[in-house]
Design goal:
With about 575 residues, the protein is an alpha/beta fold. The chain is built from twelve helices and 28 strands. The strands form nine sheets. Strands 8-9-7-10-12-13-14 form a seven-stranded parallel beta sheet, sandwiched between helices. Strands 4-5-3-6 form a four-stranded antiparallel beta sheet, with helices on one face. A four-stranded antiparallel beta sheet has the order 23-22-25-26, with no helix packed on it. Helix 5 (about 220-225) links the parallel strand 8 (about 200-205) and strand 9 (about 240-250). Helix 6 packs parallel to helix 7.
Length: about 575
């Protein structure tokens, strides 16, 4: 990620619109929906993903023979095959007058049925013939080969890359460079009346010209990760084999740029039809102008979380535009080959959404190919996945694409507490589990009775039929955490963290509350008490004599205070007892 010197948590929600039925790896068996919902697992699915008239049904091994016959009779299905090796498992054919979804629902309502599932179609993973494909470890990590069996992108999908420019003549990029069909190249006229002359591939906001040549190499590397042409026997392939890359230059050859140019680039991309805007840059200064431009954009805006020598927590140390609270932003951290947050990558339990490969990434350079590392490299992985989703389902808006990406990650324990989703992107899962609902799950906590000096009872509530998962040890909650079902009684100080998860699996931001419970204890303490020396009659008479002869002041300073000073530094220890309130752990 390139930092701009003067440049400067996101919650989402969803409902399932599956393109194939598959259990989401991010969700686990303890994911329970609090409110009733119809079985729409197969709604709007492509029949090519499974046989439309066949189901696997497994009955309990101790169920009577007549049980399965009655279940099949209710659906109208016939048994095609029984599996002696797997007791109770049958392959059945359903009649034409009932949908696969309805048949699944009927079988699953039967208490003697262990499971019912479609006869899915499995495919080979498509591997392109690009010469250096074996160097592209990140594509395997995000399950891109499996995703390419569904789509490799589309020329109708426009992705704007706001960066240092792009070598538009690079042999692995030239076929995927956006062409402004409303502009006639080289005639010196603003043919499409958009305020820019000869902007055939984009615009150079740095020099206010149509020359988008990359003098740094950064933008070209980003472009190759997103959409280097696939299966063309050359160098590398992008996540998208087919796309249109809009080139918007605002960083100079040193990787530096100004906010005004970035604002203009975002506005241009939105105006000219980009569905995704990729931003592998940022800074620490907040700019309301840049946020306003992003908020006004209909595009999904993908932003790098930032790099430091040792990654910083963006929940505390903000990096913009990634740390803007705009709903259409996805903030991306970099993961390494072992699925840990890269040592240089910023992170954030609430302010960074997801991780993607970003360490030692091989891609296009201005004149060749090479390796670069950074959240700059992780960001285009997410941008490319967003492009695949948009190509597969062009009608989806920016929030639906965002929710689809965030709700289909691979859950990885080392990412818990580092990114909101606790996961790394998974392209195959995303394309097979499209999310169309854009409601936002929320959660809250109410205290029942009690004070800080007595035990308290906490009631957690969530919106949108959400489940709530929580921890009491200060660790980040995930769908593997405890499921909230009844009030939590606290009799000791605890750090409560909780999330809301709606029926589609979309998680809210992480909520944190610390409850201090005190107890009254008896304690003992030691004090030092001065000795009290009384004058004897003998001394008093002696002092009185000198008082008469020497006067009052002679008596006071020479005898009385001299005598008392001899005992001034002498103390005795005394044990005392008291009561006080202390935190109860």
């Amino acid at each position: 990620m390139i930092l701009i010197p003067i440049l400067l948590l996101i919650s989402t929600a969803s409902a399932v619109d599956s393109t194939a039925v598959e259990d989401k790896p991010y969700l686990t068996s303890n994911h329970q929906i609090n409110c009733s919902e119809s079985d729409n697992l197969l709604k709007d699915s492509n029949s090519s993903q499974y046989k439309s008239d066949e189901l696997f049904v497994k009955f309990k091994s101790d169920a009577p023979k007549q049980t399965s016959k009655n279940a099949h009779l209710k659906v109208g299905s016939t048994v095609l095959k029984e599996y002696d090796e797997i007791k109770g498992l049958q392959l059945v054919k359903i009649p034409e007058n009932i949908s696969l979804s309805d048949a699944l629902s009927k079988y699953r309502q039967n208490k003697n049925v262990i499971y019912a599932e479609p006869n899915y179609v499995y495919k080979k993973d498509t591997i392109p013939d690009d010469k250096d494909y074996n160097k592209l470890w990140g594509l395997e990590k995000i399950k891109a080969p499996a995703a390419w069996d569904i789509t490799t992108g589309s020329k109708d999908t426009v992705i704007a890359i706001i960066d240092s420019g792009i070598n538009t003549l690079h042999p692995d990029l030239i076929d995927n460079i956006w062409i402004n069909t409303g502009e006639i190249a080289g005639n010196g006229i603003d043919d499409d009346k958009n305020g820019y002359i000869d902007d055939t591939n984009g615009w150079n906001f740095l020099d206010n010209s149509s020359n988008v040549t990359d003098k740094n190499g950064h933008g070209t590397h980003v472009a190759g990760i997103i959409a280097a042409t696939g299966n063309n026997s050359l160098g590398v392939t992008g996540i998208m084999w087919n796309a249109q890359i809009m080139v918007l230059k605002f960083l100079d050859e040193d990787g530096l740029g100004y906010i005004e140019d970035a604002v203009s680039a975002v506005i241009y991309a939105s105006k000219m039809g980009a569905s995704i805007i990729s931003n592998s840059w940022g800074g620490n200064a907040y700019s309301q102008a840049l946020k306003d431009a992003i908020d006004a954009s209909p595009a999904l805006v993908v932003c790098a979380s930032g790099n430091e020598f040792i990654g910083l927590d963006n929940d505390v140390y903000r990096v913009y535009p990634a740390s803007f609270t705009s709903n259409n932003i996805i903030s991306v951290a970099s993961s390494d080959l072992n699925d840990h947050i890269a040592i240089f990558s910023n992170f954030g339990e609430n302010s960074v959404d997801v991780a993607a490969p970003g360490n030692n990434i091989y891609s296009t350079l201005s004149e060749s190919y090479g390796y670069l590392s950074g959240t700059s490299m992780a960001t285009p992985y997410v941008s490319g996945l967003a492009g695949l989703i948009k190509s597969f389902r062009p009608e989806l808006n920016n929030l639906q694409i965002k929710n689809t990406i965030l709700n289909n990650v691979d859950f990885i324990s080392s990412l818990t507490g580092k990114v909101l989703t606790s996961g790394r992107i998974n392209a195959y899962n995303a394309l097979n589990n499209i999310i169309t609902d854009t409601t936002i799950p929320t959660a809250s906590v109410n205290i029942r009775g009690g004070k800080y000096y007595t035990p308290i009872s906490l009631k957690l509530t969530g919106s949108d039929c959400s489940n709530i998962y929580y921890t009491l040890d200060g660790k980040s909650p995930t769908v593997f955490s405890s499921v909230y079902s009844s009030p939590i009684h606290l009799s000791a100080t605890k750090v409560l963290k909780f999330i809301a998860v709606n029926p589609s699996g979309t998680i809210s931001t992480v909520y944190k509350e610390t409850y201090y419970i005190y107890e009254l204890i008896t304690y003992k303490y030691t004090v030092k008490v001065k000795y009290k020396k009384k004058y004897t009659v003998q001394y008093k008479k002696w002092y009185k004599k000198w008082y008469r002869s020497g006067g009052k002041w002679k008596y006071k300073w020479r005898y009385k205070w001299k005598f008392k000073s001899a005992y001034r530094g002498l103390y005795r220890k005394e044990i005392r007892y008291g009561k006080k309130y202390v935190l109860k752990h």
